[in-house]
Amino acid sequence: MDAYQRILCKWCNGQNTNPTQCAFCGAPLDVQNMVSESGWREAPRLRDMTQIQFDRSTCQVEGEIVPVVEINLAPSEWVYFEHHCMLWKGDGVPLTVMNLQGPKRSFLRMPHIVTIASGPGRIAFSRDAAGEIVVLPLHPGMEVDVREHAFLLASGRVSYSYVRIKGLANVLHGGNGMWLDRFVTSQAPGLLVLHGYGNVFERTLAPGESIQVEPGSMLYKDASVTLQAETIKLSSGIFGGTSMYLARLTGPGRVGIQSMYHHHESGE
Amino acid sequence: MIPAAGGPGAYVCPYCRTSAVGVGRSCPGCGAPVDVAAKASVSGWLELPAARDMARIQCGRSSVQIEGTMVPVADFALAPGEGVYFPHHELLWKEPGVVVTQRGLKGAWKRMMAGLPVHMLDAVGPGRIAFSRDAAGETLAIPLHPGASVDVREHIFMVATHAVAYDWFETGVWFRTGTGDDAETHYPIGMFMDRFVAPSQPGLLLIHAHGNSFLRQLAPGERILVKPSALLYKDSSVSGHMHVERPRSSAQSLWTWGERYLWLALGGPGRVAVQSAYGHTHDPGGPITGGATEYRW
Fold it and tell me: How far is CA B26 from the centre of its chain?
């Protein structure tokens, strides 16, 4: 099949020969994109048992309400993940802990640990909430920021770091800022799998275009999109002034949000 | 176009009673699909249909689009001069140009004491603003025709257009345990309830139901018992009070002695809507000394 006959996935821009499902992100190719009048595109609902190939390993998405991502790791290939997302694994799949640089983080007052599982063997992941799996194939040279604790797994070729955004989700919720996980690919492509609470929507912001979102709903963004905490002052009669906090995202680049938002405390 | 239901060329929505001519795939009043049969249980509950993904509802010159299926988003396109109000925690995103201000509420102290939202916010068009609730369920659109009103249980309300007037009142649904200084009054559906009225113009009210939602029409004098926290909304004509049931105990089931079930007894005439996912109603234990009827099996 030549390039003109290939089907372009509107979600990840992958070129496909299979007419029903994108080989890179699993999005159905035979259903129409759902785009709201305001420009938000609904993340494609992956069909139950959708299978995606990355390198020599495969990823299968199972279930629809709280989907499971099952990885069949090829020998010498590996994925990494936060330890609380692991659902089950084969007996022979070794686990190691990633050595993380930078300031310390915590999840539910436990140390933030990123674990590595190496092939061959099977391992599966899920999060404890109704939602959607978002598969983001990362082409070489891409950089994506993901809200804390939202990533399920990433393939070994994707490099990982994290940054802290001060001022978000902190005053109301007693944390110390919002962490963003940063995933970067250099020469080789990689796979990043996220779990969004509820439904997930994406839009592409033009250069200079901005949108304000509830901080807890921000799921991911391209690194080119800037994120800034904003305070909206509200006056309220006898209770004096109060404020609400929003995140201003400014393009260019993609922004993903989730419709059900949870605030995690971010501790040192 | 949907076949006539209320007259030649007219469609009357079985859920919100909006009549329209030449509707598309969704009711223009509440977003319910018009091309699927209404689902009613044998017991008489009508399943409220989730708005179709990307269903568009017109309200004045503004419109709202319901996006998503699991935790739907209500995405408003506000026309110039038109607006909505909402509890502050419902906001999902907005265009930077949409100004949000505080809406004055009477009895703020009482509301705070009762655990009701104190910060009701107001947004005026032009521009886009969207809302969602952090729970899996359905977003229900209730179009209010001039003169119509609906009573909504606390913390269910999501957003309403400016044509809808907001008020709140004491539920009168309570029960008391203990006597004298130990007497304690309990409010299983909250001390207050929200009342939404469209005084002169048609308006739109959006609520979020946890899980699935069901509606039934109670005839005059008809009574039904529901879990207090399952109540979504009711017509103002529907009365309610607490009712306690005690199961029969026997020698074989002495362990059930003292068991009781707390119900919200609703009496017709009028509509009642419930949600299938509901929080646990806390029973403080101890003898009930007032406020509730009781039946022992």
Answer: 21
Name all domains of chain B by residue range, CATH numbers in brackets.
10-296 (3.60.160.10)
Q: Would you say A134 and A256 are in contact if contact means Cβ atoms under 8 Å apart?
A: yes
The three-class DSSP label of residue B182 is helix
pLDDT digits (tens, 9 = 90+) for A125-158: 998 888 999 999 999 999 999 998 889 999 999 9
- Chain B residue at shortest CA distance from A248: B96
Report, in angstroms and rounded to the nearest whole number, the Rg of chain B calculated over CA atoms: 21
A244 vs B contacts (CB less than 8 Å): 88, 91, 100, 119, 121
Of A169 and B33, more confident: B33
- The CATH code that applies to domain A23-258 is 3.60.160.10
Which residue out of A32, A34, A38 would a mutagenesis test of the B interface target, given it has the greatest number of B Cβ atoms within 10 Å? A38
Provide the chain B residues 65-94 that lie in CB contact (below 8 A) with chain A: 65, 67-73, 75, 77, 88, 91-94
Per-residue pLDDT tens digits for B241-261: 999 988 776 554 445 445 788
DSSP letter, residue B266:
E
Tell me which residue in B65, B96, B104 faces A237 most closely, judged by beta carbons.
B104
